[in-house]
Amino acid sequence: MMKVLTVCGLGQGTSLILKMNVEQALADKGISAEVEHMDVSTASTMQADYIITSNELAESLVEHSAKVFIVNNYFDMEEINNAIDENIES
Amino acid sequence: MRFLEKDIVSVGVEAADAEDAIEIAGDLLRQAGLVEKSYIEAMKFSYQKNGPYFVLAPSIAIPHARPEDGVNEASVSFVQLKEPVVFGHSSNDPVRLVFGLGASSSEEHITLLRKLTGLLNDSANVEKLTSATTYEEIKNILEMER
């Protein structure tokens, strides 16, 4: 199963909002994946295929083995859909 | 669970800077007894430590901290800033809409974030929240969402 992490500074609010919209987008595309939300330090030690986060936090995840990509507007389903199309191979 | 009721919404507010805006959004929650003062301090500390990543869409900030920092009840406040405030975000600055999130570890936290996401995924709602001048207008937007 593909594993996707949504990451923010605390893993409490922002990353959960992103997770909700990413799950929606993946479901619409018929891509099955496990999506987990967490803070940036937990994510750095977590195995995953993809990490989705903000530009601000992506820098601290460059060493990660997962493919890291950025969403700027968490409430823009079009941007989220495009980012998934460009970065996730289904 | 509290979501954008009249006593935790403030329209046309002046804030000196990002920390001031966070403080105002947190203080609405504190005055309603939903969070402790320590939680507001933690919100500001998170901004200093982790930066403005919680400006998660153009003009929208959702400052928050952890449940253990002093949350009494899952809650969301709203401050509409009179003038845009710079938070230092690379693509989403400046901020006009600040949603203070009282984060809890309960199921209510998920429910609140779903409501907030449903509201803000619609860009027409974001425009209405930005141009509203009274609480009544905001209440109308929320009622349309139900």
From TrEMBL, chain A:
Any single biological process term in GO: phosphoenolpyruvate-dependent sugar phosphotransferase system
An annotated Gene Ontology molecular function: protein-N(PI)-phosphohistidine-sugar phosphotransferase activity
Keyword annotations: Transferase
PTS EIIB type-2 domain boundaries: 2-90
Cross-referenced PROSITE patterns: PTS_EIIB_TYPE_2
InterPro entries assigned to the protein according to its UniProt record, in alphabetical order: PTS_EIIB-like_sf (IPR036095), PTS_EIIB_2 (IPR013011), PTS_EIIB_2/3 (IPR003501)
Matching Pfam families: PTS_IIB
The protein's name in its UniProt record: PTS system ascorbate-specific transporter subunits IICB
TrEMBL record, chain B:
Family annotation (Gene3D superfamilies): Mannitol-specific EII, Chain A (3.40.930.10)
GO biological process: phosphoenolpyruvate-dependent sugar phosphotransferase system
One GO MF term: kinase activity
Keywords: Cytoplasm, Kinase, Phosphotransferase system, Sugar transport, Transferase, Transport
Pfam families: PTS_EIIA_2
Subcellular location: Cytoplasm
TM regions (residue ranges): none
Domain PTS EIIA type-2 residue range list: 2-145
InterPro entries documented for this protein: Ascorbate-PTS_EIIA_comp, PTrfase/Anion_transptr, PTS_EIIA_type-2_dom
Annotated Gene Ontology cellular component terms: cytoplasm
Protein name: PTS sugar transporter subunit IIA
